[in-house]
Amino acid sequence: MNHILSHQPIKTDSSNRFASNTMTERFPRIIHSILQANPTYPGRVQKRLEELSRKMVENGEIPPLVDSAFDQDQWNCLYRSCQGQGWQETEWFFAETYAYRLLLEACEYFSTLKDPFGPLKERELEQGTAFWPLLAEAETRKNGGAPGTPRSLKEELLQALLLSLWGNRADLSFSGGTALDTTGEIPETLVAQDDQPALDHLLGLQGASEEAESSGREIHLVLDNTGSELAADVALSLTLRRLLKVPLVLHLKLYPTYVSDTTVADLHRFLDVAATHPREEVRSRASAFGAALKEGAIRLAPDDFWCQPLFLADAPPRITRALDRAGMVIFKGDLNYRRAMHDTIWPPGTPLAEAIRCRHEAPWLFLRTIKSDCLAGVSRERCQALQAEDPSWRTSGTRGLLQLASD
Ligand SMILES: O=P(O)(O)OC[C@@]1(O)O[C@H](CO)[C@@H](O)[C@@H]1O
User: Fold this and answer.
1) Distance of CA 115 to the CA centre of its chain
2) Which residues form the signal peptide (predicted)?
3) Which of 65, 90, 334, 374 pairs as cysteine with 85 (C-beta 3.0–4.6 A)?
4) What does 36-91 look like in DSSP terms, one character per residue?
């Protein structure tokens, strides 16, 4: 069995093969890729990274942060939950998230602001393929109503949501990114699809003008990876603005983490490269997004909460207040799903509300390519059928979900 059902967060021990493998093999491979991508790191940085990798492989004790930093006290408080434990015998959500913070410390990020994942992110942008979702959005916008394109506002919204969902496959902490599926149809590879209630709610937010902001009709989008996924999320943002005329708030990571998770710097770098793309559609979409940022119709909300091993039920008031102001919150990706569902493998059929364990004023929509075992809200029958079809369905990144949690 790859995983054991329980009401507790996934652990990095033998009870969960994928989590255990993350700490013994996958994260050490990420450290190795960072060393290769940053050949000019001084010896002391290389040594710290190699030591971090060795400790993980050998199930060494998880170390505290040692360099002073703005968030050191908070992390040392969080660290107490695992003090004395080894990397292969603790909660996965904490271990993995903290490992990325230790990686930043080893790379002296806060004294150089040099993103250790920068070369990897840049490589994806240089390929040019990262901008493909913007071409798909431009195509839909141009051909609206033509044969084979969305005929209704609902269909167009759904196509943008699915483009964003499958954009989550391109995640450098999981793979080098794969082609996006933008057929717009709901493939059978979605294990849950609350598309109709989600679309009905989104349509109810339609605002004729910007007064929508005061009436709690903002749509909040909690971003995930930069590159291809960000392109799909920029396309989704532009579609939501064009069709619903609602203001958007994009939540991002305050500093680099999980290899390709989007920071404000990443978003501006993405727009700068898109502005010089050979395809006019990409340049015009980047320009439209930049204009929406400039006029305040799209706002950015970076926060280090999204870099910490805290579940949404334990979010600080500044985050809760912001999300409760929304007309809908759209959470992108696997990590944010884990954050909402207490990174637990809930018994099949467990309702989302039971897994989330906190009240939220706005409906929460999850657009996730499934890359880890955490799951809720999927029936026993569906789980059994998926398991019979492909035992790796929970971690292969080939299944997705579009789930709506409304209190
Ligand atoms: O949030 P994303 O980028 O979609 O996925 C990130 C992630 O969930 O994917 C891996 C699981 O395969 C984890 O190591 C990591 O937390």
Assistant:
1) 18
2) none
3) 90
4) HH-TT--HHHHHHHHHHHHHHHTTPBPPPP-S--TTHHHHHHHHTTTTT-BTTSSB
Atom of ligand 1 nearest to the CA of 26: 14
Range from 48-57, 60-69, 109-118, 182-191 carrying the lowest mean pLDDT: 182-191
pLDDT(182) > 80: no
User: For residue 332, how far is its CA from the centre of ligand 1 (angstroms)?
Assistant: 11
Pocket probe for ligand 1: among 24, 103, 171, the residue whose CB has the most ligand atoms within 8 Å is 171
Closest among 66, 59, 104 to 84, alpha carbons compared: 59
Q: Which residues line ligand 1 (CB under 6 A)?
A: 22, 96, 168, 171, 173-174, 224-225, 258, 333-335, 371-372, 395
CA of 112 relative to ligand 1 center, distance in Å: 26
Query: What average pLDDT does the segment 376-391 reach?
Result: 94
pTM for the model stands at 0.94
Domain-embedded: residue 57: yes
Contact between 393 and 387 under an 8 Å Cβ cutoff? The reply is: yes
Is 136 inside any structural domain?
no
Q: Do 196 and 174 meet the contact criterion of CB atoms below 8 Å apart?
A: no
Point out which residues pair with 299 in neighbouring strands: 249
Q: Residue 367 forms beta bridges with which residues?
A: 332, 402
What's the Cα-to-Cα distance from 134 to each of 179, 227, 288, rounded to whole Å? 14, 11, 11
The residue nearest atom 15 of ligand 1, judged by CA position, is 335
Q: pLDDT tens across 84-116, in order?
A: 999 999 999 999 999 999 999 999 999 999 999
CATH of the domain at 99: 1.20.930.60
CATH of the domain at 165: 3.40.50.10880
